[in-house]
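Re-run with default settings, no changes from the original entry. Doing this only to confirm the output is reproducible before filing.
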Amino acid sequence: MAKHKKFGLLDAVVNAVNQCGWNVIYLSDINYHPFLLRLYNGEQSQTIRLYIWNLSHGGGAKRPANEYRIQITGTRQFEQNDHVKTLILGWWAEVGVFAGFDVRKHAGQLGFSPSIQIREENLRRAALYDFSPCDRGNKEIAIAFQPDFFVDYVLNLNDLHSIGQSANEVSLVDKVAAGEIQLNDQSLNQLAQKRKVILQTTLKRLRDNRFKQRVLTAYGNRCAVSGIQLKLVDAAHIVPVSEDTSTDETCNGIALSALHHRAYDAGLITFNEKYQVITNQPKLLALKKIGFDGGLDGFLKNLRPILHLPPAVSDRPNVDYVISANKLRGW
């Protein structure tokens, strides 16, 4: 381990983990690099050894003009073991994108003034579409990704870096992630079975992230029924995703705090086609009868009579979706 000046890079990682709804515990002295961290969320946890450097433009007279790279300093060999996932990351602060490299391809002693490269177009595609796999041409697949994909990257680390073991796989995954082609049985049949599952899970997460970003932006990161922000707000589907008629349109979403999201899913509150907030009086009375009404007065007091709505009419809850969802939920 070596002394460093990487606190800004560490902050970028911690913020990314928090953005994913996870938390960080420092398992080693943060004055030394690499960092040993535990990521956790409820009962889930993962320990990582983090090597990270800034990404810088490496193109020039003797290098490709579209090259970005990390210049590895203070490290002669990447440490690996079975119980800790080792990450080699670059961070492009100006765009807010990470690049992840496959530690399995960088075993052994590093050479003099080593660097690892990734193409600029993959970094820019990740900025637009959350993640982009880059075939480095040496049997290594690098992954460019946004901060809100950080935990998914960690959990699926080796599988993501194994993309590219069959013909055209990298291009296929990149195009599906960007929405340029649809994920279907025909496209999936080009992938190995294990990576089919990984890709399906990954793209579902990307879809969820995009839906969340659009909905929270539309509502100003403010709960529609209480007005709370505090980074405690979720993007909830109006017509549940379990229904065939559900969509990822912004107008099928509503911003709700974690508490009000659970209350909405449990049928304690809803809203009608006039955007009036409604409480389920029979359910609330039933809770009173069994003595589970603690905090009810404060809960009701904080409900708005009318939803806080997005400025753009097209982003507001679609009336047909509201009516359909209320029928599904028994209102």
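The CA atoms of residues 129 and 178 lie 5 Å apart. The chain has a mean pLDDT of 86.
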